[in-house]
Amino acid sequence: MADSRGHLVFACGESLYAVPAERAQEVVSLPPLTRVPGAPAHLLGVFAHRGEVIPVIDLAMLTGAKVDQVSKRAVLVRVARGGLALIATRVAGVSVLTGPFDPLGATGIQAHLSGPATAPAGQVAVIEPEGFFEFLARGA
Q1: What is the pLDDT of residue 8?
Q2: Domains of the chain, CATH where assigned
Q3: In sequence order, what are the residues at sequence separation of 6 or more whose Cβ sits closer than 8 angstroms to the Cβ of residue 96?
Q4: C-beta separation of 49 from 41 below 8 A
Q5: For residue 96, how far is the Cα from the chain centroid?
Q6: pLDDT score of 3 more than 80
Q7: Which of 129, 130, 59, 126 has its CA nearest to residue 98?
Q8: H helices of 15-128, where?
Q9: pLDDT over 70 for what percent of the chain?
Q10: Are 98 and 44 in contact (CB under 8 A)?
Q11: What is the spatial distance between Cα 129 and Cα 121, in angstroms, rounded to a whole number?
C-alpha cells in the first residue's frame, strides 16, 4: 500500500528513517550543544533555535543501532507540543513511501515506528512524530 503523502527520508547511522514532510520543519546544522544533567545517552543536549530550546535526539543510540560517524546535522521535527531535532548522518530527500506501515513493536520506541516502508533510498522505519515526542517526554 502507498502513502501518498511525502516523507522526509534521512539516515541516522546505518538505519533509514522517515517523518511526514509536513512535520519536518528544516534540516539544521547543529551548534555546540548544552548537555542536560542526568539525561539519557540518546539526548545529546539542547540548543536554542529561534527563541525555542530544542532537544537533540540520536535515534541510533535510542534504538541500539551501530553508528560509525558523528553528524553535525539534524532534522528539526515540529509537533503540537514543540520541536525536537533528530540526528541525520545523511538526508535522502522527500519521497512517497510504500509498505505495510505496521508498528514495528508493541512497546518502547518500536511502538512509534512503523514499516518497513520502501523509499527510493531503501527500507525505512516511519516515525509517528506525536507519539514519538510523547514517548520521549515520559522519560524514555
Answers
A1: 97
A2: 2-137 (2.40.50.180)
A3: 2, 3, 4, 5, 6, 7
A4: no
A5: 17
A6: no
A7: 126
A8: 59-63
A9: 94
A10: no
A11: 21
Task: Say if residues 117 and 126 touch (Cβ distance below 8 Å).
Answer: yes
Helix (H), strand (E) at residue 4: strand 2-12
Q: Which residues contact 121 (CB under 8 A, 6 or more apart)?
A: 9, 11, 16, 92, 93, 95
Q: Which amino acid is at 130?
A: E
Cell of 76: 528539526
Distances (CA, A) of 77 to 68, 126, 134: 24, 13, 13
Q: Which residues contact 127 (CB under 8 A, 6 or more apart)?
A: 17, 18, 19, 77, 86, 112, 113
Backbone phi, then psi, for 31, in 5-degree steps? -80, 180
Which residues does 67 contact at the CB level (< 8 Å), separation at least 6? 12, 13, 14, 58, 60, 61, 89
